[in-house]
Amino acid sequence: MLLYLSEMTTIGKIESIINNRELSKENIAFLLGLQKPYQHILHEYAGKINDEVKGNKVHFRGLIEFSNICTKDCYYCGIRKSNHNTHRYTLLHEEILNAADFAFRNGYGSVVLQSGERSDRFFVEQIDSLLQDIKKISGGKLGITLSVGEQTEETYQRWYSSGAHRYLLRIESSSCRLFERIHPQNALHMYDTRLECLQMLKRTGYQTGTGVMIGLPHQTLDDLASDILFFQLQDVDMIGMGPYIEHRDTPLFAEREHLWLLQQRFDTALNMIAVLRIVMPDINIAAATALQAIDPMGREKALLCGANIIMPNITPTENRKNYLLYRNKPNVDEGAEDTIAGLLKRIQHIGKEVAFDEWGDSQHYFNKVNNRGSSSAI
Ligand code: SAH
Q1: Residue 366: which H helix or E strand, with range?
Q2: Which residues of the chain have pLDDT under 50?
């Protein structure tokens, strides 16, 4: 009887928070901590909102990890500068164009160019000419997202003019305390710089994406609730977030005894996606690859509770094994073609449909622009 009463209270509380939009930090933290048998209520609600706003469409972004050379030393990341156990590579211009062409011919609609972080002139120019060439080979039809870290405003503007229209820069954790714990304390790894870069990206006109890792050592549900409020406050257009997965060749590995169980990181990541879909219905949310490293059905589960984007890896197979941000990274051995066929089947299996040949832009971005337009007209 007591159990029955407490069950009713939990279900009642979930429904009241969601239906009455009582999304205070405390209530968000409560939702983020939901486990079986209550978690599914949150997920189904978020899935329904996603269906209402986005339909049952899933958009692809072909992910090209074109270089693992990195000037940064983030404590969690397997391609950090000081990890000498990684074979460093940079794809040739032609190889990157081939991957983009593959995405274009197979109807992906967009690509994401991602790499370790560099800001030297050669790098800035390499990206610039890549953007122009990708636009050329696709007749301007392939959408391009960049994910190459902190740069100057001038660089962001230059790349925007050359054809990039979306940019992903995860804040990693919106908590300054945690951010400082997972990065070296020096001018290259400043919380304020990262924040300023997000402002520059928005000012430049990019659809701007950020995100966090979920289940970092010492991270709490309260921290994650603050991350959700941070996304809302920053008014971002896209989010990519997934579980933190330890990598043995990184300093943060030493703190692994403070980690939540992998399953708990996974469940909390799904809860984050679901809550975010409720809080920001019209943004794009990616089903992060790291989810699949924990559960083979991880990305599908994310699509069912609020995510609407998948980023199939189209990096040439021989390079994938060197872009190991974390252990157990999936699809390291497969060719890109295998991944398409498999993905299509998986997506159709959960009753969703792949939207081929579309950019799949963030509606939030355009809603913001329209609102701005109408308020300035008044
Ligand atoms: N250099 C680029 C992107 C490269 S890494 C940038 O700084 O934006 C892309 C993302 O992988 C990072 O933003 C981080 O959130 C994620 N990542 C890195 N190491 C990880 C780990 N050990 N577990 C889970 N995600 C990780």
Answers
A1: helix 363-377
A2: 1, 374-378
- Residue 24 corresponds to which tokens in the numbers above? 């205070």
From 350, 272, 333, select the one nearest 306 (Cα to Cα).
Answer: 272
* Domain assignment of residue 226, given as a range: 25-373
Give the pLDDT of residue 376.
Answer: 37
- Nearest-CA neighbor of 42 among 79, 15, 69, 60? 15
The closest-lying atom of ligand 1 relative to the alpha carbon of residue 76 is 22
pLDDT the model gives residue 338: 53
Atom of ligand 1 nearest to the CA of 169: 8
- What is the pTM for the complete model shown? 0.95
Domain of 139, CATH number, reads 3.20.20.70
Determine if ligand 1 sits within 6 Å of the CB of residue 169: yes
Structural domain count, the chain: 1
The answer to whether residue 11 is domain-embedded is no
Ligand 1 pocket residue status of 329, Cβ below 6 Å: no
CB 323, CB 83: distance < 8 Å: no
Please report whether residue 13 resides in a domain: no
Pocket test for ligand 1, best of 67, 77, 315 (most atoms within 8 A of CB): 77
Ligand 1, atom 6, lies closest to the CA of 149
The answer to whether the beta carbons of residues 231 and 276 sit under 8 Å apart is yes
Ligand 1 atom with the smallest distance to the CA of 288 is 25
Q: Is residue 89, in this structure, part of any structural domain at all?
A: yes
The reply to whether ligand 1 has any atom less than 6 angstroms from the CB of 63 is no
Peptide bond into 37 cis (omega under 30): yes
